[in-house]
Amino acid sequence: MNASSPPAAVELRGITKRFPGVVANRDIDITVRKGTVHALCGENGAGKSTLMKILYGMQKPDEGTITVDGAQVSFHNPADAIACGIGMVHQHFMLADNLTVLENVVLGAEKLYGIGAKARKKINEISDAYGLNVRPDALVEQLGVADRQRVEILKVLYRGARTLILDEPTAVLVPQEVDALFDNLRELKSEGLTVIFISHKLGEVLHVADEITVIRRGTTVGNADPKTTTTKQLAELMVGSELPSPETRESTVTDVPMLTVKGLRVAETGVTPVPKESPKDAYGHEGAQVGRLLLDDVDFTIHKGEVLGIAGVEGNGQTELIEVLMGMTTPDAGVITLDGADITKAPVRRRREGGIGYIPEDRHRHGLLLESPLWENRVLGHVTERPNSKGGLIDIKAARADTERIVREYDVRTPGIDVTAASLSGGNQQKLIVGREMSHHPKLLIAAHPTRGVDVGAQAQIWDQIREARRDGLAVLLISADLDELIGLSDTLRVMFRGRLVADADPATITPEELGSAMTGAATGHLEAPTDPEHAKDAAR
Ligand SMILES: Nc1ncnc2c1ncn2[C@@H]1O[C@H](COP(=O)(O)OP(=O)(O)OP(=O)(O)O)[C@@H](O)[C@H]1O
């Protein structure tokens, strides 16, 4: 350690963790210095989450030591880690929607400051100290994604964390929210707290991290200095080889409609009916008589060979749109036509058989059977289709062989096809789903965050596969929180806000910042290209 560098907040030495058939962590050494933001980068399955679960007491290492503030520790569960000042904010937020911020924060930590005035004072103090801007009495269900994340951070700080682990914290945020989060992280740092974060977004890593550790195939391959490293170099360090360069934009859009949606309307049922005396619904729209409209007069057409991208902050109707298109719910009004056939009331299976592929937004709830082996997951949603089925029965041999093919072609890192989906790393679970859905050559792909949690190499590969299928006439509805993905893949872009499609943009000229600002409701109609299109393209890259 050089004389001027701060002391270690956390030291991991010789950490090894084995699972059946896999060494997830192999002799890992990391020093995280006090008052720094330390990024962990690496391919899908490299071992990042496993290492953080070990540091947070969720898993026990087979070998190695953990030192916190100079003292060696041994964690049996997260409570032990919290007691030593280690806190973790998971990618899937763990808040109770129907409780207030204060109730969520004190839940399970009542012994610290009670549940009344003292707790409220502490919450306000923490919120002020780190610029978190959290309101103790707000109901969590009324908060947006970024606010919820701040509540999660506050929850961890309230429990006395001095080192915070954030697992892909920016995956769900728009650019402006990412900037605000990074401001919060700087505040934490300036107060002497330490942040460790996992991210696949290499530009952001270089922007915010003080130190970067790269993990490849379970072991540390080196540190990168964010001041002198480029995203390309960082990616190459992760992958161990050069990445393919992105292909140039080409249009394959035809004038043959594949999916047409007209006047789609979905009202929230059974929840907070608008009082008679109030002429407005929960969104503030005039004249509403029912619960708020989750989808309000949504119209669009996707043609063969076209990717329609829908941008929007999560919770603005995207989930409801997908559910209606897949047949999980019936709309209150509107017509859905797939390749000339009215499917408005068709059951899910008919839509699937009619050629809809589906990459769900929540892969754990809708994409996989976590406790089932990979080959059974390959059959999921495609039970009646080839090669899974023959003569009305599941053809186990063919399904297994095809699972092996998907694992190979989509580079799903796994010791075999008989392990459970739960044992795959997040990114590898995603690759399996994408492989399964693309294997049936859909006419329409409904893709929600198709590359969420996948590394830059796998992301480029999935984009290529979607582009190639588009060339052959695939129509895609793309919903994504990744604005580079939306801009890079879409032929047409629309912005969804409070259940309506409020704006459209040309993906060739729009910048992520402009798109992000329209997503917060700041701009409607056609988003004009800036006067200097070259500048816009540079910004979008
Ligand atoms: N509970 C488990 N049982 C068996 N194998 C596991 C388990 N958890 C993780 N693994 C394996 O350990 C390896 C490392 O996984 P880990 O989730 O740590 O990767 P990661 O770097 O976080 O990946 P990603 O970027 O995809 O989230 C993978 O091969 C994974 O399949």
TrEMBL record:
An example of a GO molecular function for this protein is: ATP binding
**What's one Pfam family here?**
ABC_tran
Cross-referenced SMART domains: AAA
Ordered alphabetically, the record's keywords are: ATP-binding, Nucleotide-binding, Repeat, Transport
Q: Which domain of life is it from?
A: Bacteria
User: For the ABC transporter domain, which residue ranges apply?
Assistant: 10-242, 264-523
Q: InterPro entries, from UniProt?
A: AAA+_ATPase, ABC_carbohydrate_import_ATPase, ABC_transporter-like_ATP-bd, ABC_transporter-like_CS, P-loop_NTPase
The protein here is known as ABC transporter ATP-binding protein
